Hints:
Elements: H1 9-18, H2 43-54, H3 71-91, H4 103-113, H5 119-125, H6 129-143, H7 148-151, H8 159-172, H9 182-192, H10 208-222, H11 227-239, H12 242-254, H13 259-290, H14 295-321
Helix pairs in contact: 1-2, 2-3, 2-10, 4-13, 4-14, 5-12, 6-9, 8-13, 9-13, 10-11, 10-14, 11-13, 11-14, 12-13
Region (Disordered): 1-25, 327-349
Protein name: Iron-containing redox enzyme family protein
InterPro entries: Haem_Oase-like_multi-hlx
Amino acid sequence: MRLPLARGPVSDTLTAMLSGPPRDLPAGTWRELSTTGDACTDEDLQLSLHICYELHYRGFDGVDERWEWQPSLLSLRHAAEERFEEALRAMVPVQAPPPPQEVPHALTALVDADDSPSLSKFLTSRATIEQFREFVIHRSIYHQREADPHTWAIPRLAGRVKAALVEIQSDEYGGGRAERMHAELFRATMRKLDLDDSYGAYLDVVPAVTLATNNLMSLFGLHRRLRGAILGQLAVFEMTSSLPNRRYGNGLRRLGGDAAATRFYDEHVEADAVHEQIAAYDLCGGFCGQEPRQGATVLFGAACALELDGRFAGYVLDRWRAGQSSLRGAGGEADAPLNGRSPVGALGA
């Protein structure tokens, strides 16, 4: 994956520096981060965070791998994370921890109370093929590395809680069969939609609201102090997955998608129905039984996930209802073509 186009002063400095050997960033680079506006929709901040996090995943073409632990880059990441986390805690105040045995019920209550707009209902009955392809482009940022942010939590857990997470992750990674990995199934869907299935191909065209949902997982997964939050995020991710994925699959079939195109969504209907029970009870409930004070952090992570996913859905639907693309162009404008061709088009063979 190549380095993305900058979206502001910090990502501009970061991408320019990463093109060379590891060295200190210019003094005070972190001070260029905006301290006004919504951090969750700040293009420069969210892209900068995504770049810093990607160095812990697969990295970028031509970027020296020693940048991953370069001290001044980590200082910049810390400053961006502080800004992001402050915004999250302002949106979703941490509550008092419930009794451990009540955590699964508290997660269910959060999900039941969520009144975010339904992107899946729109996709199943009203979306055009161009809009469905846009949706897949947005989701490619996560699904091409599906489960990886949650894997960071495995060594931070113990006993049956660790076993529960490993059980979920084993399914996500195809039970040891590469062709059944969920990331690979998603790549097949992308190919069927005539999209570029190479890793990170559409980073330049997704907006900050999309990057924020992904950065949330990396923030939680890479910090031991937030291990409860990544479990809560995973729990509501699984608890809100089966029905939407059924709708996605039905929507794609309505638009002409065959079994290979819809397999990714169909696989999640059954798998996540099982995963949601494991995640709520064995994972989050068991974790809070081991560490009772972590209940508030688990619910914080869950609430943040629901909030950001709701914001993402609202943004996309608002753009579509206004007759506009939900994607950024290669030059930053919303509807410009990507690398000389439109990122949306007809259903591929």
